[in-house]
């Protein structure tokens, strides 16, 4: 029975690692399920003891990894409010937004030995939900692209700039066009609550896609 | 069968957007798998008639198929669209049933596994309670049977270990016996050169290897390798060996003798029952063992550390035991047997080195001058012997060194009138020491 605070950076790093791993798998899976890229570039890999589809394309993988590398420090300090995977059509208007709302309790209390396996189970459920999400979503138009947005609390972007310089991966403030969607429909997918993190996944979909 | 199950399935499929597999359904509702399959079939049928919602289903087809002349039993999960196709390829169909029902069109089979994973994990102990596969002989073992199975597994694994150490059985059984054997072994090494003593030494070392803590593992491995050469050492002095191994032996000699003595006392410590008996038998040998028995094992470790510290500078200063200094150092820290051995070893080592052909680094005493400030603040140069490492290739440079040293004391003696006498005395005294040193007057003559 240990009670850790936010200042215990080691534990914050552990939580950030878990979340970034999960987000990587989730982004790959979203790209697969929503057919943003042809299914030929994906191969089955194992995560949380279940098969998931991950991309083999090196540049795509590198892009996603760089993105998450920059997000990680924000998650560590609980500055990231939402991580959004936006799918845009050819005119760069968003058609779908997968929103991961993340919040971490300020006082982390580990009350059970099976904490991580419990978290793994919850993340597995998220993965499963993403796999079946196209039942509730309309098909996307062809030729879509994607991008990742991060909504942060306060002025946390200062920290991001440090990481950007190191990694040479610039982040820019998002355009209004990318952030706002016309006539969004909200479809909740999954919610999870655990000792270390609370996460919610929902999809905002544009009513008229094509 | 009441119709509630239809509503249940409907709720799972439509409201929760779940993938409902027959296995998951049977575990959730607590029904036999065949019942679950029938439920799903009925539900599908019902919904298709209503044609309200779009549902997708997967089927499990099991049967015999002939592939290139070979008959094999094939079990596959197929989508509804591929069902008829798959059925036609089979020569004999054993079973066809609904595998899962879901709203979404699945692109791959991964989620099907995920669905069952958690359900099975929750019911791990009796996940097959609703299963149709039965075998009367397949009964879980009772705890007694489990123990019986595990014990024979444990017994064979310790066996290989004793085989490595031949006298392990003896050591395990006897407590005073090994102590006596080890004493004999040590004395045997020092006293006689007969072969049986070799074995004793080997045994001793091996038993030590088995019993001792891993802390002493690294130095232990040295004695194990070195006892044999050491025995050969005492046995036959004319044995030809590469010089390196000789040098290592010599370097480790001091360490090995110390370690053997330490290790001989250690096994006495470890079997606590023998601790009482051992002092009686070992009193003759050396007072060191007595000392160790009196102290705790911690003190023993401290002594080991002390010896280690001593040993470490030794190799730095004297890799080979040509220099008389090292045995003197060892004498102060070790007991009587070891220095005797060293002195015996030295003449032997000399003879061995003379036979050597390999060029290696050696140490020798060289006349060197040291310049320093004395009490009155005057620079003084003194010549003295110091040990220095050299290799055979550097022999050519030896004679030039003493010649260069001459001008140095001469210049310094001219620096101050008051110290002239002192320095002259010193330089003259130094000049007398070396045979190769030219006299101070030689400086002026060469002009």
From TrEMBL, chain A:
| Record domain HORMA: where | 13-203
| Location in or out of the cell | Nucleus
The UniProt record lists the keyword Acetylation: no
Record-linked SUPFAM superfamilies: The spindle assembly checkpoint protein mad2
GO CC term (a single one): zeta DNA polymerase complex
Q: Report the InterPro entries cross-referenced here.
A: HORMA_dom (IPR003511), HORMA_dom_sf (IPR036570), Mad2-like (IPR045091)
Keyword set, alphabetical order: DNA damage, Nucleus
Single GO BP term: DNA damage response
What superkingdom does the record give?
Eukaryota
Q: Spell out the PANTHER family in the cross-references.
A: MITOTIC SPINDLE ASSEMBLY CHECKPOINT PROTEIN MAD2, MITOTIC SPINDLE ASSEMBLY CHECKPOINT PROTEIN MAD2B
Protein name per Swiss-Prot or TrEMBL: Mitotic spindle assembly checkpoint protein MAD2B
Q: To which species is this protein native?
A: Labrus bergylta
From TrEMBL, chain B:
Does the record's keyword annotation contain Oxidoreductase?
A: no
Record-level GO BP terms: DNA strand elongation involved in DNA replication; DNA synthesis involved in UV-damage excision repair; nucleotide-excision repair, DNA gap filling
Where on the tree of life does the source sit, at the highest rank?
Eukaryota
Extent of Polar residues compositional bias: 251-264, 429-438
Q: Tell me the InterPro entries matching this sequence.
A: POLD3 (IPR019038), POLD3_sf (IPR041913)
Identify the GO cellular component terms for this protein.
delta DNA polymerase complex
Task: Keywords in alphabetical order, please.
Answer: DNA replication, Nucleus
Chain segments carrying region Disordered: 144-447
The Basic and acidic residues compositionally biased stretches are 199-213, 240-250, 280-294, 331-359
Mark the transmembrane ranges.
Answer: none
Q: Where in the cell is it found?
A: Nucleus
Select a single GO molecular function from the record's annotations and give it: DNA-directed DNA polymerase activity
- Protein name, as recorded: DNA polymerase delta subunit 3
Name its species. Labrus bergylta
